[in-house]
Please model this.
Amino acid sequence: MPTTDVLFALTGDVRRNSRALKQLRALGGMGLDTTVLTLGAGPTPPDLPNVQLVSVELPPARGPRHFWNVHRVFKQHAEQFSARVYHASDLYVLHALHQARQHRHSSAKLVYDARECYPHVASTAGRPWVTAVWERVERRGLRHTNAVFTVSDSIADWMAATYGGRRPQLMHNVPAYQSVARTNYLREHLDLSEDIPIVLHQGQMRKHRGCGWLVEAMAHVPGAHLVFLGRGAEQLVLEARADAIGISPRVHFMPPVPPDALLRVTTSADIGVTLLEDVCLNHRYALPNKLFEYIMAGLPVVASDLPECRRVVVPSGVGQVVEPTDTAQLAATLREMLAHRADWRRQVRQGASAVFETFSWEAASQRLTETYAALLAGETL
Model:
């Protein structure tokens, strides 16, 4: 039976998940051997020391059957290993890893990373019975964990109030700090002149992420170009809408780039936007990684006026918050910020240090490694 220090599982491709990559580097820095169960095939990135990737394939399905397949297939793979720590990087693999731990090594530890407020994501909004099912699943899973992390204070507070027990530890979804030199990547790729302003939306194009409202607002931001950097089910809808309102030459769709190459692309824009709509607790309490990527790349931010986003953007002066469905307000904010984009760039440089003093991957990484060290030493947290 193969043995490993850590068995790490994620319902996604770990190679495209910046949070998981940072965690794996931190565990590798501790000298721990980590086996990762991941969707998608491909080689292990060269900068992941002591990491082995195991590709997991799921049969096609939707709805409850999809989640049953996730549990069944990940459990089958996990039971092939004996690990000292089982790390569930989302709720959907938590029970699979718990059962695999019991099957192989009941004295091993179970760590859960609550990267979302899973019972209250956008797909469960208005479906109380689905929310109730996922709350029950998470409540049961938490009983078996030895350590729990999450991404924002609001989600940590909600989990503690909803489930009781110890409040999850914070591991903010923030990139490791680095100095980023400005580039012309987007202008060179799109053949745009230096004087044309660029608004950037990073990440997947899904419903309730403000993408449609952003396209509508751009009709009232003359001369500016909009770049969607990523993929998603809404792309065709957005393309059609841009064409219908006559701005398709100013709206561009580019495929995602690897996490480690992202910031040199980001820094070539003028404004970064993150416009989650307040349709569920997960959006309301979110603290998106892209928010910090924009700031680190020197971009002023236009963000949804949600508690966690406001907590970052307003006190530091690195951008403005808006109601994403108010296209008039959104357009006016974009026009004002683009008209003074050099001043906003300077303001972001001044405010970024305060942001990254409070929201630091170095501090979050230390919490992760200290927790692992305690668990492996047999300490009770």
Observations:
- The chain has a mean pLDDT of 94.
- The radius of gyration is 21 Å.
- The CA atoms of residues 204 and 236 lie 13 Å apart.
